[in-house]
Amino acid sequence: PPHPRHKAMQVYMQGRRWRYSMLGLLMLTSECLSWSNMLSARKFLSRPGSLCAAGSLVSLLVRPTLSSPSPQLVARSAACDARMSVQDFKTAQDFIDYVNTEYEKVHRTFEEQFWGTKMGLPNGTPLADGKTPKEYSVEQLTRTKQEMENFLADEQKLEQSRKWLQDSGLNAEQAKVLKLFERTFGCYIMESEQARIYREEATKLEGSLNDKRNKMSLGANMPGKGFVEMSSVGLREKLRTAESEEERKACYEGLTGIGSFVLSNGFIEIVKLRNKMAKALGYVDYYDYKVRQAEGFSKDRLFEILDTLEKGTRDLMLQARAKLASDKGEMALKPWNMVYCMSGDVVKKLDPYFPFEKSVERWGRSFSRLGIQYRGAIMDLDLLDRKGKYSNGFCHWPQPAWRKPDGSWQPALTHFTSLANPRSVGSGHTALTTLMHEAGHAAHFANIQQASPLISQERAPTSVAYAETQSMFLDSLVGDASWRGRYARNRAGEPIPWELIEADIRATHPYKVFTLRTMLAVPYFEKALYELVDEEITPERVAALEKQIELEIQGGPSPRPLLSVPHLLSDESACYYHGYVLAEMAVHQTRNFFLNTFGEIVDNSKIGPMLEEAYWRPGNLEMFLDLVKNLTKEPLTGEAWVNAIKVSVEEKLEKERKEYDKAVARPAPGADAGEQQVDLKMRVRFVDGPTVIADTEESQGDFLAACRKFEHFLEEKYPATA
What we know:
The chain is of the alpha/beta class.
């Protein structure tokens, strides 16, 4: 009698065309069909216009004795089922509507799992818009990611995009969207079946490694205290502020433990699989694959740009190391001493002027004065450190913003997180910088006003450098004397004194090149990592490579060990860090443009609208280098960044003092009658895992009232901050 799976196949085939049914049933009843032949048949069947649904389901159903199909194969089967109807659209707009609607679904389900697993949420925790996934798990994360990638890797969608681009009846917006579809699907289609297998295997290992990393017992063996649990952010904070060298060294050793952990928990296998996948697709290696997808040019071209920056600042780095050793002693060059010796005393003195509980209000006021709005978005902010939470700040969008065919506006739903410990010295400054950064991402993606959610999502073909330019431009303001004179105030409302800003500049400006070199080290490490041959990719060789790159690029062991950088572990952020370097180049060039045009950036209400029009609104329709050139009127170079580093301390002090004096002469934020309300045109929820701390919806849209509720929560949970 027919096995239930055979019966299921017969039912599935009912209503399909004769050729689907006949070939599918013929394959099912063929007892002599070997598994290798089956795989060959699947390759044939998955070609554009072929029997892809039958081919995928046959691989699931042909052998009754096989174990249950994997989530990846089920996802591929569902994707193939959807492909069978792709050819049936009567108009280009029908096809565009189908892609937009179906992409929203797969994007949403993946992002729900991404947030839930990274935040360690209990099953059933509702999201800000009321939707409540039943389960958050690594298995569901893997399944939903595969479903999204299968959707994007559908060859028939690419064919249809190209077909409809030939339609003479297209209007300009339809043509624009279809060209973007063509670019997007071209980034994800894997013509090699073996590459798809490698990708699926790597995805499973990534999920497992990230889950283990989140649950890792991380911390430091502190003198006289034993093992003290801390997140990676907490460990780095201690490197900046702990007076005891023994404590700082213990925290550094805690950070180096991350590398040992990931090397023995699957990272080696992930690197090999990523490279195999990329090479099966015809790329040089995985780094080449990622940069071509995101930036539209090769790895070689990328490192031509980065090499000019590396060579142009190498001598500056060596001079800065020599100055640090001369001023503070050779021990200052130890990786656990460097950051403290450059700024430790100043960080403590700055701390009272960056109270953590005021960080959200100051972010809101600053963005509001810049003319930045979020076009009806909903935002969840999970700002506090806790055990089991992902160890890096990020901003993602379960719901991309886009304009629908009827002209209605779909606002963004934004999730963003940081890892603040309000008891820690320096946490307020770190939290505020992170808020300005991630809220910059959120402002960017909330303001992409185009006719498809694929234009406002952060993955390829969206440029990494393009996305990071927006956030890094806005977080750069926290370091300006003009911003500090306005917003850096103690709990009594008194502005930060000039003498403290001067001390900070004298302590840190001579070493700004270290920031540049620290950023450069990550892409150079990943480049070297993926250029290793398979036999060389061992825990010992990768650990040695980490030390080698730190020596070559940073001059010695780094205060942030390269293998502790979380971006390396996840496919979304691996081979991504070069984007920060390119973005920092663009940030300095953009700042120069605005300063030359307006004379000021802080509280200039023209800045937000100009960013929206020039950088944000186009989304990924425009290339990053073109966007920068269109706004600044110059091609992107590192000249502005290098020149900023070369400015003498005295010259910088003179300029910053003038900006500070103008800032403190103005009324304090909130003192003007027009500043009693902050309206960013969005709903904000402050959350701590599943706990909703404050919600602007409950305060009739009053952002400042929600900020006060957040402050009260902190006073109760962290009495030391009161």
